[in-house]
Amino acid sequence: MRILVILDCVETALPALETAGGLACRLGCHDIRVLQPQPATDPDYQSPDEGMPGNEARLHFARTIADRATQLHRICTDWAAATGHTTDTHWVEQAGDIRATVAHEASGSNLVVMGRPHAGDAAAISPSLAGALYDARAAVVMAPLRAYATIGLNPVVAWHASPGLERAVASAWPLLEQARKVTVIIGESRLDTQPDPALVATLRHKGVTVAVERFISTDTDVGARIRALAAQGDLLVMGAYGRPHFLEWLFGGPTLDILTHAPLPLLTHH
């Protein structure tokens, strides 16, 4: 089993590594690959009307990339040494098309962990997320902005029947079947109109405690209701919608408050 960690932001690097370490312990994984993707060209000079970068601009860009890589590598090595992951953590730096680089690495990994961005970071994180989630079709875990004492012991499944959710549940299954308690959240237009999903009976048959929480959903309160019902969990499992809708949800859509007020680790699949 391999867990891939994408480190592209100093502020979210440690939470991403801590989340990956927690998952590795829960899943018995001894192969943590840490990827630091680097742009090959300066994003400030991407279109013809922006001209060509001068020597000073090129040097500044190179220094910025190198300094960030040095910071991220130090965070990674310090974390690995402090947590006993030195021998199973492998550092990789790769310059080029970030989306393609991440997609290539993610295609050979069981889980991809990346730091959850702040609401204004969409432009910086989208290539990594798109490469892992949409191109490689990997299971992606968005790490919280703060550390959790546990991960996957009390998971919450946001139920919305879709192929993406089926894949997310399949990826999370080793955690779900060993969980202390699983909560399944179902949004309905009218209460009790949907039967319990099959995974409820399957998990209960395995001896897992399962709680089913239902709520009346509207376009304006979905995020707040899920946040309230998932407050006691330590992992949110949900399917990703099509690219535009999911990225809108992540970076400023109607359920942004899930990310900003209840930043659970989020496991998703497209």
Can you offer a commentary on this structure?
The protein is built from nine helices and ten strands. It is globular. The protein folds into two domains: 3-143, HUPs (Rossmann fold), CATH 3.40.50; 155-269, Rossmann fold (3-Layer(aba) Sandwich), CATH 3.40.50. The chain has 270 residues and is an alpha/beta fold. The model is unreliable at 251-257 (pLDDT under 50). The protein has a ten-stranded mixed β-sheet, with helices on both faces. This is Universal stress protein. It comes from Komagataeibacter rhaeticus.
Secondary structure layout plus pairing:
Blueprint: E1 3-6, H1 10-27, E2 32-39, H2 55-83, E3 89-96, H3 98-106, E4 111-115, H4 122-135, E5 140-143, E6 155-159, H5 163-176, E7 181-188, H6 198-205, E8 209-216, H7 222-229, E9 235-239, H8 243-251, H9 256-261, E10 266-269
Parallel strand pairs: 1-2, 1-4, 2-3, 4-5, 6-7, 6-9, 7-8, 9-10
Antiparallel strand pairs: 5-10
Helix pairs in contact: 1-2, 3-4, 4-8
Order of helices and strands: EHEHEHEHEEHEHEHEHHE
CATH superfamily of the largest domain: HUPs
Rg estimate, integer Å? 19 Å
Count of DSSP-assigned helices: 9
| Overall number of domains | 2
Strand order of the largest sheet: 3-2-1-4-5-10-9-6-7-8
DSSP summary, beta strand count: 10
Ends distance: 20 Å
Short description:
With 270 residues, this protein is α/β, with parallel strands linked by helices. The protein is built from 9 helices and 10 strands.
